[in-house]
Amino acid sequence: MDDGTPYFISVEEALTLCNNTPPMLRVEHVSLDDAHNRVLATTVVSTVNDPPFDNSSMDGFACQHQPDATYPLTLTIKGIQAATGEHTAPSIGPGEAVRIMTGAPMPPGADAILPIERCDVLNEREVSLLEQPKPHFVRKEGENLRKNESNLPRGTHLTPSRVGLCATMGHATLPVYQRLNIAIVSTGDELKPPGDALKHGEIYESNSYGLAGLVTWAGHNPIRFPSVSDSLEHLRATLNEAAATCDVILTSGGVSMGEFDYVRRLMEEEGEIHFWRMKIRPGSPPLFGTWAGTPLFGLPGNPVSSHVVFRMLVAPYLRAAMGTDGPQEWRIRARLCDPVKSTKDCLTLRRVTLVSTDEGMMAYQPKHQGSGNLDSLATAHGLTLLQPGQSGEKGTWIDVLVL
Ligand code: AMP
Ligand code: MG
């Protein structure tokens, strides 16, 4: 291509170009049950103070904090307070105590708790406190979050604890971005569905299944199309259908230099290409552009390559579109315990297994690293993030993306 289309650019440059053509977002309101792994479309504020009232964090006795008293100290039991909406205990004064359960509202007058293990109940009317009761066992109204406050801004990725927090804040439904429908179109005459008999020269189609898993992991809907033969007509018809029904298109295969790399040819002739090839190993052939106005990632055909390019380009693009930081892999430091082949000009992602030791995380490369070897990815814990030109010598500390 000599028409000025960006060619063989860094992963960062590629991502910037992709982000210029975001997918269309829609907002919907979903119940908390459906909110897991979604992204908040607006900031959510608390409808209540959390906790809504002063309460006990222990099963024990509520009483007044008396710094100068000596222990054991016998107090009169005035009643019992369970974790219920009703106040069953009277207010208390010095020398008095109320049996209290975890989460129960503090009786008026009480400001400290002694856990039951440190109390000796003498009879129905008296309890002996073996040590000083503690004010810090009282959970104060609003100490976690105040009404109208928020720590869940737009773009928050709803993890299980955050969904729980939304419930704590009093929300039954949440405004979230609709999941994007992401078309997955694999291409190649040699591809057969798993389960069919293979003729010589054929292989099982695997990319669409792996990519569908990644799309689901990213929080969106994978729409797997039957794989497309290496024919311009078939590919054109499938891309038209994908563009009409989906928000983003992922193709796999057909973007290299080969005679039958029709994705690239069709995108060149009838679509729009924003860049082709990026400095990443494995996975350098991808292209990005639009087909009938729909963002399209042309991912490489080699199974490891398509997976790696999804993680380094498609997933960050989807997160950026929603202004969210999750779901996202952890990046850690690890020491190479095997030499790893790096490259001069590409970000190099080799598959490593990780072992946690007293000296830190150790990274091994037990499998051969062909980009067609999906087993090397399936058995790996992480991918090396070797920057262009960075040494992959044994003993080097490097960044690793944990899968
Ligand atoms: P291509 O980019 O189309 O030349 O494909 C590169 C390599 O990946 C070839 O060995 C293909 O057979 C293989 N390949 C392409 N698509 C898939 C797929 N969907 N599943 C498994 N292997 C594939
Ligand atoms: Mg092919």
Specify the helix fraction band.
10-25%
Number of helices: 7
User: How many strands?
Assistant: 26
Spatial separation of the terminal alpha carbons: 35 Å
| Beta-strand percent range | 25-35%
Q: Can you walk me through this structure?
A:
The protein is an alpha/beta fold and 403 residues long. It contains seven helices and 26 strands. The strands form seven sheets. A seven-stranded mixed beta sheet has the order 1-17-19-20-16-12-15, sandwiched between helices. A six-stranded mixed beta sheet has the order 7-4-6-5-9-8, with no helix packed on it. α1 crosses α6 (303-322) and α3 (207-217) packs parallel to α6. It is elongated and about 90 Å long. It binds adenosine monophosphate and magnesium ion.
List the helices and strands and how they pair.
Elements: E1 7-9, H1 11-19, E2 27-31, E3 55-56, E4 60-63, E5 73-81, E6 96-100, E7 112-115, E8 119-123, E9 126-129, E10 138-139, H2 160-168, E11 173-177, E12 181-186, E13 191-192, E14 203-204, H3 207-217, E15 221-224, H4 232-245, E16 248-252, H5 262-270, E17 272-278, E18 280-281, E19 287-291, E20 294-299, H6 303-322, E21 331-336, E22 347-348, E23 351-357, E24 360-364, H7 374-378, E25 382-384, E26 397-402
Parallel strand pairs: 1-17, 5-6, 12-15, 12-16, 13-14, 16-20, 18-22, 21-24
Antiparallel strand pairs: 2-11, 3-10, 4-6, 4-7, 5-9, 8-9, 17-19, 19-20, 21-26, 23-24, 23-25, 25-26
Helix pairs in contact: 1-6, 3-6
The site of adenosine monophosphate has 19 residues, from helix 3.
